[in-house]
Amino acid sequence: MLIRLVSLAALFGLLFGFDEGVIAGALPLITKTFDISATGEGFMTAAVPLGAVAGAILAAMYADSLGRRKVLILCSFVFAIGAIAAGLASGLEILIGARLMLGLAIGASALAAPMFLAELAPAKYRGAVVSAFQLMITVGILSSYLIDMVLEPLGAWRWMLALGAVPALVSLIGITLSPESPRWLAMNGAREKAIKVIGLVQPDLSKDQVSHVVDEIERTQASAVSEPGWSVFLSENVRPVVIFTIAAFVFQQVSGINAVIYYAPIIMKHAGFDGSSTQLAATVGIGVVNVLMTVVAMFVVDRFGRRPLLILGFIGTALSLVVIAYAMQADKPELAPLALAGLFAYIAFFAVSIGPLPWLYMSELFPLALRSRGMAMASVANWSCNFVVVFSFPVVLAHFGAVATFALFGIFCTLGAIFSWFYAPETKGVSLEEIEMRHSPAAAA
Questions:
Q1: What is d(CA 303, CA 235) in angstroms, rounded to the nearest whole number?
Q2: Long-range contact list for 401-406, CB < 8 A, 24+ apart?
Q3: Is Membrane a UniProt keyword of this protein (predicted)?
Q4: Residue 184: other Cβ atoms inside 10 A
């Protein structure tokens, strides 16, 4: 049951990755269909993270009242409608609107799915379980790149975008047949249902052990501040969590990852790879490395811990970006293989640490009563920075060139490594209830 539920919730990661990555191959074809300026190109591409800002806010408003499951059901509907609308778009305005809709679903599901996974998983597997969401993001990106490569010779960008409706319908059926998060059930007085769900996902526990888990959830909920207001996020125990989770996502985005994901073929062109087929093949290579290293992350995150991986990831991406910037010097096509190797290394370091860890930290660190709103604050920071990076990338690239652009990303990664060294906490193997005791407002009182 745990494997089935994890696979299902992680499917929303696939939808996330597919709708982010598919634009990479579709964009050159779309610009031939519609007359788009560099600014228009940036806004159309960045419509997804812009919509995700609103999606994260809406999910925070309703994840506690409706439940994690119902929010994910609604996300499935919006994913399907947005994908079909994008494929049928008769003009740039409709395409932007469809991508805003997809962003809405991505933002909401990116908050609700990791929350759902973290609240289902046993403490010793929680890192791997929540990282499954990030793994499926990378699988979605790779799938979209492969579809782009197959359909690009046909110029079929509409099919590229519309095919996102297929996994959306699968996830809709699956999540409709699934139970709710046991911690949400316990938080809302459905003790017996919570016991049943925990028994299903952790069948190795005895009845007494399952009851003890629910007792712990109810005890931490009872000790939490009753209907806490937003001011509680400024309390002594909660404020550091807010600052750290927001900063982790900011550094994740300014590392340049989504510039690479959204504009991979364009980057390949600047690196010296000629021909759209060659550029897309190199892009698929990036997708493969992304998936493989995220699998590695699932195996090491609960063994080596969150903090050392985060520090290693930022150091590795910084060094890789230095290589990329050097290899992208003008009129040096012989450096193209070095640029590709640098991109592969960058993706590898990102996927094993910077990619999954902010999502994992976000789902772990906030107390239960504050989790949906706290995760929303971190998600809004994530998507806002995502929008700025994706929107500005083609403009910055046009004005300052590839070398300066990637050097800037390298500087941000260096700052991320310094930040992680001083502030990244370790939560490996610690139950959500134990983490809550460290950061609950009541503990600070």
A1: 32
A2: 401/330, 402/267, 402/270, 402/271, 402/325, 402/328, 403/325, 403/326, 403/328, 403/329, 404/325, 405/256, 405/259, 406/256, 406/321, 406/324, 406/325, 406/328
A3: yes
A4: 25
Which of the listed CATH numbers 2.60.40.3930, 3.30.300.130, 1.10.287.380, 1.20.1250.20 matches domain 2-178+224-444?
1.20.1250.20
Question: CB burial class (10 A; 0-12, 13-18, 19+) of residue 204?
Answer: exposed
How many Cβ atoms from other residues are within 10 Å of residue 400's Cβ?
12
Ordered by start, the domain boundaries in the chain are 2-178+224-444
Exposed/middle/buried for 297, CB within 10 Å: 0-12, 13-18, 19+? buried
Query: What is the dihedral angle through the alpha carbons of 247, 251, 254, 258, rounded to the nearest 10 degrees?
Result: -110
For the segment 16-55, what is each residue's pLDDT rounded down to a tens digit? 888 878 887 888 888 888 877 777 777 888 888 889 889 9
Q: How far apart are the C-alpha atoms of 181 and 113, rounded to whole Å?
A: 10
